[in-house]
TrEMBL record:
This is HMA domain-containing protein. InterPro entries: HMA_dom, HMA_dom_sf. Pfam families: HMA. Residues 2-68 form the HMA domain. GO terms for molecular function: metal ion binding. Gene3D superfamilies: 3.30.70.100.
Amino acid sequence: MEERQVKINGLHSKEDVDKVEQALKDVWGVRRTEVSLERQEAKFSYNENSASYEDFVQALKENGYTVSEYH
């Protein structure tokens, strides 16, 4: 199980949070998601045998968001 915490650029509303959560959940292998409008970040865990970090970055880009990696 891999865990990531990333800064999401472009979060301005609850609708953005919902959109980001759905984009993350749509990636095969995701286990848990948590998106914070206040902190402008997302935390998610996933099965690294089913998905890669780049899959999540791409899903967010396709929905109009940019990502800065924390760790």
